[in-house]
Amino acid sequence: AQSVAQPEDQVNVAEGNPLTVKCTYSVSGNPYLFWYVQYPNRGLQFLLKYITGDNLVKGSYGFEAEFNKSQTSFHLKKPSALVSDSALYFCAVRDDSGGYQKVTFGTGTKLQVIP
Amino acid sequence: DTGVSQNPRHKITKRGQNVTFRCDPISEHNRLYWYRQTLGQGPEFLTYFQNEAQLEKSRLLSDRFSAERPKGSFSTLEIQRTEQGDSAMYLCASSFDREDTEAFFGQGTRLTVV
């Protein structure tokens, strides 16, 4: 069975500082990995994905994520946090044998950027 | 706006009543997904359509739940005899018919059963 863990319920960072939101995963085959952001009472917005290729993936709003196969991690990063980045972030994973309906989401990490 | 559209945004209903939600996917997308999200959790998969065919249903989709996508465009999710435990955000998403694709989500319908 596949799973995804977001070990931090909340991450606090000062505006202008770099931010990292952690994600680790477990799948039986090759992983397809996704990050989404959710603002209050809104749906999920796609940020970026890793399917294959370069381990460093760049996405929307200046976010990037690094795929680390040996550590089974896919941490989300941004060099300089904005107050507007404050939201709930979800990591998601599936293996390469099924379609998107097989994606498993983490429980989310609340990012609070402090002015 | 060419994104995924869900209606209504909010629904309050009395226990035992039936409710129906609508999802209009991105027009180029063949695949459509329904999810349920409760507080403090990520979205949980309910069901999936490819065009008009419902190809997969989660164990979460009890007999009181039914989903349709009659013409391969919009979809409806109906909950019969609602229970308080059905209170949640119901999310719809759509994607291209490709294995490496991501899905794009609507803003959700928040259901409150009183």
Report on the structure:
The complex is a heterodimer of chains A (115) and B (114). Chain A is mainly beta. Chain A has strands spanning 3-5, 10-14, 19-21, 24-26, 31-38, 44-50, 56-58, 64-68, 73-78, 87-95, 104-105, 109-114. Chain B is mainly β. Chain B has strands at residues 5-7, 10-13, 19-24, 31-37, 44-50, 53-57, 65-68, 75-79, 88-95, 104-105, 109-113. The mean pLDDT of chain B is 94. The interface between A and B is medium-sized, with 22 and 27 residues.
Low-confidence stretches of chain A: none
Number of helical regions of chain A: 0
Structural class of chain A: mainly beta
Residues in helix, % of chain B? under 10%
Look at the structure and give the mean pLDDT of chain B: 94
Total beta strands of chain A? 12
> What is the tally of beta strands of chain B?
11
The general outline of chain B is: globular
Beta-strand share of residues of chain A: over 45%
Count of DSSP H/I helices of chain B: 0
**Ends distance of chain B:** 33 Å
- Biggest beta-sheet profile of chain A: 6 strands, mixed
Shape of chain A: globular
Task: Characterize this entry briefly.
With 115 residues, chain A is an all-beta fold. Chain A is built from no helices and 12 strands.
What does the secondary structure layout of this molecule look like, with pairings?
The complex is a heterodimer of chains A (115) and B (114).
Chain A (H helix, E strand, L loop, with lengths): L2 E3 L4 E5 L4 E3 L2 E3 L4 E8 L5 E7 L5 E3 L5 E5 L4 E6 L8 E9 L8 E2 L3 E6 L1
Chain B lengths: L4 E3 L2 E4 L5 E6 L6 E7 L6 E7 L2 E5 L7 E4 L6 E5 L8 E8 L8 E2 L3 E5 L1
Characteristics of this structure?
heterodimer, A: 115 residues, mainly beta, 6-stranded mixed sheet, 4-stranded antiparallel sheet, 0% helix, 52% strand, B: 114 residues, 7-stranded mixed sheet, globular
